[in-house]
Write a structure and sequence with these properties.
The protein is an alpha/beta fold. Helix content is 41%, strand content 18%. Helix 7 packs parallel to helix 8. The longest helix is centred in the N-terminal third of the chain and has 25 residues. It is globular. The protein starts with a helix and ends in a 7-residue tail after the last helix. The relative contact order is 0.15. It binds pyridoxal-5'-phosphate.
Length: 223
């Protein structure tokens, strides 16, 4: 595809998502400024991220350390890079070199390692799935305990909670429960909502939505 056609395509889809974000916010008495749109560029080339940067986007999300490291070297420093993939202990040092916000911390051991690299912020990933189908995240029942340990890490401020609704669940219910639990703990930032469910997430209080395919198109390689 030639580059100007790709520019038009991304500009059009981005404008649609921004409109939907604003509509979802205003339908529940919120403003679009309360919601950070993270454009998930995983599996797409850095040229797409550059186009989106030129369209005004400053928040990008990646799931893999090597992809984030590469793209962050090429884009200007004014970008805030979000890591939302599964954390592997041996990658932590490298992730800390390029990411500004980590959305997927679910182990105190990993949190303690990230704490060695001041300047990062993070979300605790919560799991709402039955243990058998577990794909990462702190089970919601253990969250209070996890949080009481996590807040002792001086260099790693907890921003809030992140969740990906389990397959087959009702996303609105999941988002509402996670936000309620977070508020109980005194947290008011919630990273929740992807292409298919960001409107429901905004209604439930999301402050960060992570949107990939609605803007970039469907990914060839699954994440
Ligand atoms: C890939 C991914 C997204 C973006 O998903 P889309 O459905 O393409 O919007 C958001 N969050 C996480 C954790 C992801 O892995």
């Amino acid at each position: 595809m030639n580059s100007s056609r790709r520019e038009e395509e991304l500009a059009g889809r981005l404008a649609e998502v921004r409109d939907e974000l604003a509509a979802a916010a205003s339908s529940v008495g919120r403003t679009p400024e309360e919601i950070t749109l993270i454009v998930v560029t995983k599996n797409f080339p850095v040229s797409d991220a550059q186009i989106l940067f030129d369209l005004g986007e400053r928040n990008f999300g990646e799931n893999r350390d090597n992809e984030g490291a590469e793209k962050s070297k090429i884009l200007p420093d004014s970008v805030t890079w979000h890591f939302q993939g599964q954390v592997q202990g041996k990658k932590i040092k490298s992730i800390a070199e390029w990411a500004n916000v980590v959305h997927s911390i679910d182990s105190l051991e990993h949190a303690a390692k990230f704490n060695n690299y001041p300047g990062l912020e993070y979300f605790i990933q919560v799991s709402m799935e039955p243990a058998a189908q577990h794909r990462g995240g702190v089970p919601i029942d253990s969250l209070s305990d996890f949080y009481s340990h996590a807040v002792t890490l001086a260099n790693l401020p907890v921003q809030g909670l992140m969740v990906v609704p389990p397959l087959g669940s009702d996303p609105s219910t999941v988002f509402t429960e996670v936000a309620a639990k977070g508020r109980e703990l005194g947290l008011n930032r919630f990273s929740m909502g992807m292409s298919g469910d960001f409107r429901e997430a905004i209604a439930a209080g999301a402050t960060h939505i992570r949107v990939g395919s609605s803007i970039l198109g469907s990914r060839v390689t699954p994440a």
